[in-house]
Amino acid sequence: MRVVGSIATAGLLLAPYALGASSASEAEVIIPNDHPLIYYHGRWDASPGTWWAGSGFKLHVQDLSTLTLNLGPHTTAPLASVGVSVDYEPFYTVNVSAGANVIPLNGSPSSPQMKGTASVVRINVEGWQDNRINLEAISLNKGARLLPYTPSRLAFQFIGDSLSALTSGVGSGSQGQFLPEGVNQAWPFLTGESFKAEHRVNAQPGAALSDIVSYGNEHGVSYQYFRTEDTGYFYTTDHNYTTPWNFARDQPAPTHIVMHIGANDASQNVTADSFVQTYQNFLTRLRGLYSSQPIFVFTPWGWPSADGTISYYYQGRYERIVDERHHLGDHNVFLVNTTGWVTWEDVFPDNQHPNIPGHQKIASLFEAWLIRWGLRPETRWATPAPLIG
């Protein structure tokens, strides 16, 4: 067994990985969780463990043929669902739990198979709940070698509620709800993929922007966005507290900020004037982090009904929010008018949230909007992979 780097997690022993499943493990390359060539994205606590849907990591590996995730006790029990993509092929779901988890690398046509090539593996948690993986180490096959992962020069930051990331987490106790492959099928993620960009999704189902209790969330997004943990912390017995998020860890820093939020404020009877003030205060805090990045403010696409009508909330208020920013001299805030983007055919009839084709439609419409605005997708991923141009 070859060990690369040093182990960061307190008390982690290499022996279980060396003596565990097979004699072949003696030839494995063990990558500790503090290895500098692991490209972490999203929100990770010190354990290190994931919070928020879509958090995960990326690896660029020479001569890859096997990969095992060694996960610690803070991993969701009995399991968490993660999305896996090899060489930028579509994500597929793998259920993992505490202990050693062999990750199948044949879930896509361009899976690693050629010696002398370098593969890109992307792994993230899919769900808005049951979404914690506690990474202790990664085991690779003999001869494998980590290479630097170069992130895209484009980096989207999405902020929202269930309409941006209402996910299921297949196999993690919430199957059957909404998107089978979780955040990887949601419009923010699809948009990031289309532009070959890095993308972070901080969207919490049921949460208002206002810092109020809402549908099981103890805090609103205007509070939680600045914390490491998502609102599930409140129900997590081994971590029922929050810690500030160090935004310097978001590398690269977001180049574009996208917000679609307000449905739960309206449902909780937050007045329009109060909502506008909360939104403005939140944008002021964001400007302290992102001084010049474009911020895109979505109007609601509303709640479609079978009879063809659509119910809207806070009509005219998003326009007011953007206008007020312009009056303050901040002309890098833009209104995205989504009126008409979502109809009854685009939603699940029992909850009026976008279905899979609906999310694809929203992503396509927003991508077209961004191109008209002046943003062009990258022509290729910044870290190349075999069979991908």
From TrEMBL:
Signal peptide: 1-20
Keywords assigned: Signal
InterPro entries: PCW_deacetylase/CE, SGNH_hydro, SGNH_hydro_sf
Residue span(s) of domain SGNH hydrolase-type esterase: 158-360
Name this protein carries in UniProt: SGNH hydrolase-type esterase domain-containing protein
Gene3D superfamilies named among the record's database cross-references: Galactose-binding domain-like, SGNH hydrolase
